[in-house]
Amino acid sequence: MRGIRLNCSFYKLLIVMAAAEIQQNAMEAGSFGQDIEFLRKHVKVVVLADRTGDSQVAVVPAYQGRVMTSTATGLRGRGYGWLNRSLISSGKHEPHINIYGGEDRFWLGPEGGQYSIFFAPGSPFDLEHWFTPPPIDTEPFEIESVTGDKVVCGKRFAVTNYSNTRFEVEVRREVRLVNANDALVDLGVSVPASVKSVGFESVNIVKNAGNADWRAETGLLSIWILGMFNASAKTTVVIPTRDGSETEYGPIVNDAYFGRVPPDRLVVRPGILYFRADAKHRSKIGVGPRRAKPIFGSYDAAGNVLTLVRFTLPPNADRYVNSMWELQKNPYGGDVVNSYNDGPAKPGAPGFGNFYELETSSPALALAPGAEARHVHTTIHLHGGEKDLDPIARATLGVGLNEIQTAFSRSAAGR
Question: Which of 138, 191, 298, 374 has the fewest CB atoms within 10 Å of its CB?
């Protein structure tokens, strides 16, 4: 009998060890499980999940209700969001900006110009004087409600722009899981079972909580949503554009944010832009409202991940805040779609991290007291074989995976 007890204890020990090994495997480097385990050591995390547990999204209310990362294949699957682990674990606040990372963060624009909320009145437009407003950087949002697939949070605060206009703002932000098929059905897309997917959307509502009108003459705000994703040597941002003359539609692309983007990093073709997302060269591009379409994305050829972003693009809106770091002739001639690739700010200097960004903005918000505006930003990750992803890319972005992967080599051959 004693031998049986020993054997039972031994088998229990094996079971415990096996369970621990399974849990450790679930938290392997780069996995969603590891992301969650890390985040929970430092902040409260709300995890949204579908019934299968495959599609999951991690939201951190303390970071303004930010979507930090997501997965299409459960805890052991890849985490799609870029996380700044060193900053998060430090518990410190940086003076200019706290780059925590995350796939969907809430910001307000404009960043630059006479109506900027990132520069104090009269200060020069340089990095030394650039500061992210605390309500969209370090101050938490309050949770209103949480269900299995949705979290709602918000905050009331004030910001002052470069022209000394004060805005009383109330923000309500809802993040929820969405089914990829449902999110793409209007484009004729049916996601096959062989493709793993996760989708989520943020519904962002900004209200004028003050007593004065928000007027163009003294500056307007915009809702600005930014997603940080893991960069790679084989990741390309793809932005469909509308064809037409510059007189009618404006410039095809704005690449003057950090100096002109070299031709080996930005390829402009009829109806499409290709932009390198390798975190090796600090650069940013933008597309105006008359050129943009309400969908764009990226393709990671190394990981076989197609990422799509859909967003609210009102058909007749033409006033978008301008975030260029200068006193502007046209403060409402800004971009609706942006993409940023990180990299060294100067030779030999480190970049912020191994990430690129996909960004969208609402029109400039001319709101009366009590009025509100809404901007929806939807992110979908699709992981599968090229044969299955190619028709989805064609239906949504207008080009196939081969065109995306060879865009820069074809451009170089043509020069």
Answer: 374
> Does the pTM of the predicted model rise above 0.90?
yes
Q: What pLDDT, in 10s, does the model give residues 184-217?
A: 999 999 999 999 999 999 999 999 999 999 999 9
Tell me, what's the pLDDT at 415? 57
How far is Cα 305 from Cα 341, in angstroms, rounded to an integer?
18
| Residue range 140-151, pLDDT digits in tens | 999 999 999 999
Residues 6+ apart with CB under 8 A from 7: none
**b/e map of 115-128 (b: 16 or more CB within 10 Å)?**
bbbbbeeeeebeee
Separation between Cα atoms, residue 161 and residue 115, nearest integer Å: 5
Taking the alpha carbons at both ends of the chain, their separation in whole angstroms is 83
Q: Are 137 and 92 in contact (CB under 8 A)?
A: no
Outline where 102-189 has alpha helix (H): 180-184
Strand partners, 298: 237, 307
Residue 413: pLDDT band (50, 70, 90) is low
Q: What is the distance between the alpha carbons of residues 356 and 106, in angstroms, rounded to a whole number?
A: 16
Contacts by residues 8-17 (CB-CB < 8 Å, ≥ 24 positions apart) = none
Give a yes or no: residue 10 inside a domain: no
Helices (H) and strands (E) in the chain, counts: 8, 18
Mean pLDDT across the chain: 93
- Looking up residue 191, the CATH number of its domain turns out to be 2.70.98.10
**Amino acid at position 324, single letter:** M
User: Given pLDDT bands bounded at 50, 70 and 90, which one contains residue 414?
Assistant: low
How far is Cα 58 from Cα 39, in angstroms, rounded to an integer?
Answer: 9
pLDDT at 29: 52
| pLDDT above 70: residue 7 | no
Of 28, 29, 81, 308, the closest CA to residue 195 belongs to 308
In a domain, 2, yes or no: no
Enumerate the β-bridge partners of residue 382.
197, 306
Strand partners, 274: 238, 267
Position 256, amino acid? A
8 inside domain: no
The beta-strand segments (E) located in 147-244 are: 150-160, 166-178, 196-208, 222-230, 235-240
User: Is the residue at 17 inside a domain?
Assistant: no
